[in-house]
Amino acid sequence: MPRTPNDRGKPWIAAAPDSWGRLHRVAAWVLLGNWAGGSTVPSRTLYPHQWSWDSAFIAIGLRHLSPRRAGRELETLFAAQWADGRVPHIVFNDSVPADAYFPGPDFWQAGVPGEAGLINTSGIIQPPVHALAAWEVHRTDPNDSLDRGFLHRLYPRLAAWHDYLLGPRDLGGSGLASIVHPWESGMDNSPCWDSPLARIAPADPGSYERRDLTHSDAADRPTDLDYGRYVRLCTDYRDHDYDDARTEHAFAVEDPCLNGLLAASEYALADIAAAIGKDPGFHRARAQAITAALLERLYDPESGLFRCRDLRADGADGSDALIGEGSVAGLVPLIVADLPEPVVRSLLDTLRGDNFALGRVHMVPSYDLTGSAFDPARYWRGPSWFNVGWLLHRGLRSYGATLDAKRLREDLLEAAGRTGFAEYVDPHTGDGRGIRSFSWTAATALDLIAEGAD
Do 388 and 394 touch, CB atoms closer than 8 A? Predict the structure, then answer.
């Protein structure tokens, strides 16, 4: 039986005893090859630093090779947590040249004190998958986890992270967290952001140099106009010292993906609290409150999915507004426990219908296949992503859609192997797009393989 090394000093961990054995070996070596000493880079080329929600997905897969290394992945990230509780979306590796990635540390001018000096970070966030990841890492080897104090160390940091999201980032006062930049959604270039971004004056293109186009086809990446708007939002936030109370936030959106993950992570935080002898009731109640706010604020029964809410929209009555674009972000709340049965049924119908065509295209497209802005190649405007597929697979299983979950699992694993662990794929052709040997693609494959070995 093929075997994969770990770093725990225990016997090597056997690969899954099914037809995905070779895929398991190659996925393991992708993660080992992208290991940077304390964390895993998404890729050695375009993304040479540590990314927040990438590391959560990476830890979920890495736990099948080494729970200790998976735990270290998360603890390295949280060592860069800010005093206000936020977890920055990038933790910069000082051994990488400052100009290797834009926006780099010189642009953000942000960081926190560390044992070896300043830890340079970005100033924005990404979706909160971390408590869910920490709980999965713990469950892999609970005795060792408790002996090492893994959950005891991480619990207060996770709680502070959620406090930040539901405190300073509740810009609408509704019990939901808001994103203040498209990058914070994780779905950076989604058509959902077109309308809110249209109000933003782009930064002078001569004031910065795009580095992403060095490693990726321009047809796959955001346009120069959108990129200029991204830079403008970052600059304004930075110039207000990343203070949410002092920044007007011309872009402020309640996103169902981020808030669905926050609810799921609150449930995971309840499990963590119980495991270390604390009362889980607070976190369960907060998860239920987030879920209620999601349903009240973002669920659209007519379209059968959750929508993003633009808090800066100028409606006829002066109110904010739901964004009409159909994004896969609106299906991610399937991972949340105890959704009303009619809502679950409606989400499943939408996932299986012509808009997302589960089982009839490759994986799950990131945007409505019938939408006017659909693009099968361009970043988050149509391509199918492995981490989102993993989330939806988890939701399908939790709500008893076992046949759909099985088909999606097989689709994700087949695509990962065929494309060399591509960043994302064209939903119609299945062609790999973006970067190859991408870490969360390998990590989610490892987790899906392990599921079949249970």
Answer: no
Helix (H, G, I), strand (E, B) or coil at 8: coil
Distance (Å, rounded) from C-alpha 175 to C-alpha 178? 10
pLDDT at 12 over 50: no
Average pLDDT over residues 301-310: 97
Nearest Cα to 25, choosing from 64, 71, 74? 64
In whole angstroms, give the CA distance from residue 21 to residue 19.
6
Distance CA 178, CA 311 (A): 9
Q: Whole-angstrom Cα distance, residue 236 to residue 240?
A: 6
% helix, strand, coil for the chain, step of 5: 45, 10, 45
Task: Give the whole-angstrom CA distance, residue 347 versus residue 401.
Answer: 12
3-4 and 178-179 strand pairing: unpaired
Is the pLDDT at 15 greater than 60? The verdict is: no
Residue 188 annotated to the active site: yes
More confident residue, 212 or 355: 355
Kindly tell me if the per-residue pLDDT of 16 is higher than 50: no
- For the 3-453 domain, the top CATH level (class) is mainly alpha
Catalytic residue (choose from 54, 136, 188, 368): 188
Q: Which of 237, 246, 265, 245 is nearest to 167 (CA)?
A: 245
Active site residue 423: yes
The model's pTM is 0.94
Catalytic one among 226, 423, 426, 447? 423
